[in-house]
Amino acid sequence: MSPTITAISQVFDALGRVPLIVGALTKGTLLILIAVGLTRALSNAPAAARHLVWSLAVAGMLLLPVTTLIPWRLELTALAAARDALDVTPLTTQQVAATQRSADVATMALPPSAAVTQPRPATSTSDQPPAVVAESPVLNPQSPVADPATLLLLAWTAGMLWMFGRLVVGVAAIRRIVRNATPASGPGWQSLVENARAALGAGPTAQIVISSQAAMPFTYGLLRPVIVLPASVDEWTPDRRRSVLLHELAHVRRRDLLTNAIVQLACAVYWFHPLVRLAGRHVRMEAERSCDALVVAAGTRPSDYAGDLLEIARTMRSSATAAVTLAMARRSDFEGRLLAILAPDSGRNVLTAARAAIIALSFAAPAVAIAAAVPAHHAVPNAVAKAPEAQDVDGLTAESAALPATVAAAAAQGTATDSQAPTKAQGRDTAVPALLSVVKDSNVAVRLAAVEALGNLEDPRAVDALVQALRTDSDARVREAAAESLGEIDSNRAVPGLIAALGSERVTAVRAKIAWALGEIDDARAVDALSAAVRDTAPEVRRQAVWAIGELEAAAGVPALISVLRDPDVETRKQAVWALGEIKSADAITGVSAATKDADAEVRKQAVESLGEIADKRALPALEAATRDAEVEVRQQAVEAIGQLDDLKSAPQALIAATRDADRGVRKAAAEALGQLEDEAAVSALIPLTRDSDAEVKHSAVEALANIGGARAVEVMAALLKDDDPEIRKLAAEALGKHR
What we know:
The chain is built from 38 helices and seven strands. By secondary structure, it is mostly helical. It has five domains: 3-146 and 374-413, no CATH class; 152-345, no CATH class; 423-537, Leucine-rich Repeat Variant, CATH 1.25.10; 553-648, Leucine-rich Repeat Variant (Alpha Horseshoe), CATH 1.25.10; 650-740, Leucine-rich Repeat Variant (Alpha Horseshoe), CATH 1.25.10. It has a five-stranded mixed β-sheet with strand order 2-3-5-4-6, sandwiched between helices. A two-stranded parallel sheet has the order 1-7. Strand 4 and strand 5 (226-230) form a beta hairpin. It is globular, with a radius of gyration of 34 Å. The termini are far apart.
């Protein structure tokens, strides 16, 4: 028997002696595949329904080890046949004893030089004393180092400890953020929280804190939930604050923090199983969509809420501790969330208790049957069960033929072949070919699960099969999943196939996902195809194509983006001006300047921000006009953009006029922009701001005067040494120290 076959046989034998691993790879996989099929059947149901199914699947994975307590068993002959084919039938005590004696006889019959090679007949068992065998660690079948089952358990334990360690580090980091945060106090906050609780039907309560260390809004804590808001919350509109509080309180009401803890536990225990991570990802995704539905149901305007989410995701960095928290606007599946929010039935798409019970029973029935399933009992052949009275070479050969392959190999060779514990890479080497083999399965649910799992593994070997599925699969859901998986793998080899599919695909959702994937891969070859897609009849495809061109940052896509600045869809126009800002091409100044007069305030705001990104002073006239916009956020963004323009020699009059704006945010931005320009002509405009009623505006004005310098500015800062605010006095003193 070759060493390779022997090693494989020993791994199967080891798996047979570690039933928990077998359960994870078989029963657990079946549970997740059931969840895949059921959630696909519920594709038009509320997101909370799919969240329930995925949560039950993950919880079921954790409960598999305790299914031995179920008082009944479902014996399956098919499982027994598979078990026998793999030679992993557990040995009885008599079989183990007989095997040990067989190995001892075979070993004593061999000279030392042949101990690990093919045995030869021996006429006497006294040629080699038994002590020689006992002293050789390689020949000891009980050696824990050479036991594959022990190595598997050690590898599993090491992986769990690593995953749990990461969770502990994440929890410690979040606790530190919460501990250093400032409680959100004041009648305004109290009224806002009570309003949000009432809109959700009361019930959920949580402490609200503000932290400068928070990457974005998130909820943390099982027993005492805490909603952590970033420091920029002070600049948010009341409507945005209400939307964020509704979303985070919805997590508390739905007990998503408990579900998230279960998911993290399952991912740690089954760290080697790619489908568990896939299930955990779906739990998070559907939880966010469920909370979005509750926010809309509470009376929030869908378009406003979608805009708030987009702004939060765009302007805030992603959280490094997202695994132990529920961050509000993670970028994965963000486009799908926006489409769900803007759907006509988003506010009514909430799961009822009766429907939840039916869905839970629909999953529980097959899940319990799978948990109770065991191989049917097979009688042990007499030749194996019988313990021999005496052993000789001929008897050893006959019994070895009746034993499982791994035991026969050990008896014949007198050794236990070392088996290296499986690593994550080895597990992937096994998983990817297995999944590729079912990408063309006759069952749609199986194909869909395989395609999604390949994307989760992010292995480039799957590119060709996924491209083929995208081009030829008969089910649109599979094609859409194939496009998404290609985007997650992020391989340039997929670009030609994606481009071809974008031109031939007839289903809107699939075309939109293809455009998203091309943006993720970031290959300039996709620009022409995406430029054509911005004229697609479906708004969601146009949005994704525009976004993708912005991600590519390709100047060749500027004409196509300019052509959609008058698109009837607001989100498409907004994405177009964002993308032009990302590309930073001077050729876009005229088009983006025109967009500063768009009928939608969000488009105007994005347009002035993009002009600031381009940073060309030819955009100044449009930005000066925007400082007089009716919307506060547009005016503030215009002031900030003027401060970013290159080669401005003097402070524009519009910027000086902005220091008298009624809004504190605009005045603060104007002071900061004037400080960046360092024009002494702006000192007179900044002096009144040092007496502003808002402390932050005063601070910004003093810092601006410090940057500008000059005799007049020094005189003003000297007078500020007597200000009532100690922070102002401190800033003035520091500024005076810089001007000798």
